[in-house]
Amino acid sequence: MSPQADAVPMTRSGRRRRDGGADFTPAFGFSAITSGRHQRRPVALVTGATSGIGLAVARDLARDHNMILMARTLKDLEELAAALEEESGAAVLVCPVDLTDDATVARMTSRIQLDRLDVLVHCAGVEAPGRIDALAPARWREVLDLDLVSVAHLTSLLLPALRRSKGLTVFINSGAGLRTSAGHALYCAAKAGLKALADALREEERGQVRVTTIYPGRVDTPMQERLQAVHAAQRRAEGATAPAYRAADHMTPQSVASAVRLAVSTTMDAVVEDLAIRPSAML
Ligand SMILES: NC(=O)c1ccc[n+]([C@@H]2O[C@H](COP(=O)([O-])OP(=O)(O)OC[C@H]3O[C@@H](n4cnc5c(N)ncnc54)[C@H](OP(=O)(O)O)[C@@H]3O)[C@@H](O)[C@H]2O)c1
């Protein structure tokens, strides 16, 4: 369990009360972002909101939604919340939480007391390079826990609020969810599982909750840089040369945010079910 997440269940920017639990009131959660001048905006929750794709999605949706932001690092969340409130006038609630900490995630979502949720975007995730003979069981469990199990858990907790607003759930998957490759068994397994989760959810909730999966190719984010640093180190260890990371070889996170926007802006009588997006110059 993350002690920080437990000590600071949630903080809304502009009202930076450190909450040990005693002075917490439900009004601090959902009602705080749906009252007064903010009440007409739909509500969107983005996980992994402080970096890469999630950050771009949060910035884009904050233009016309009130926001709930999740990631582990409180400082990053607070800085982002302040920027979004300034840029777009959105009301923002931040939830510092390790999404693999089931008990804290459950406690936090219940404390928000979400009446409705219009958009849920699952962006948090971790890369997992490595050949099968080099991956320990603990590593399999750690990655699947974040990239798959925590997504299913959070979705299940938020389904009542999503149903009340006939909301949309967006899963940020990957080309790796559709195609496997050597050296990526774990990540591909997690993303193939995520595809199955989204497809099953779409059928179970048809008519109540709309479900979109987005399959991005390479995106210029800290995750992609870390991944390519691992590959470069491997190549150098084998005596080969490794090309330097070039942001220009990738899509921008904003391109993926545009794909999310397409799904969000599709009218209620239709749903973008699956959308693959890749760098236009990629073979
Ligand atoms: N980059 C690509 O090329 C690419 C391509 C296809 C698909 N994707 C997918 O897109 C998603 C986002 O990737 P990205 O490249 O934007 O990653 P990123 O830049 O590394 O951002 C990851 C985000 O997730 C949060 N996070 C990580 N572990 C967490 C945990 N245990 N609990 C809560 N939050 C956590 C991080 O914040 P904290 O560290 O503060 O928690 C951060 O906000 C992932 O699912 C990835 O698989 C990426």
Automatic annotation (TrEMBL):
UniProt-listed Enzyme Commission number(s): 1.-.-.-
Tagged with keyword Oxidoreductase: yes
Keywords: NADP, Oxidoreductase
Domain Ketoreductase: 42-222
Gene Ontology molecular function terms on file: oxidoreductase activity
Keyword Oxidoreductase among UniProt keywords: yes
Region Disordered, annotated ranges: 1-23
Family to which the UniProt record says this protein belongs: Belongs to the short-chain dehydrogenases/reductases (SDR) family.
PANTHER family noted in UniProt: DEHYDROGENASE_REDUCTASE SDR FAMILY PROTEIN 7-LIKE, RETINOL DEHYDROGENASE-RELATED
Protein name as it appears in the record: Uncharacterized oxidoreductase SAV2478
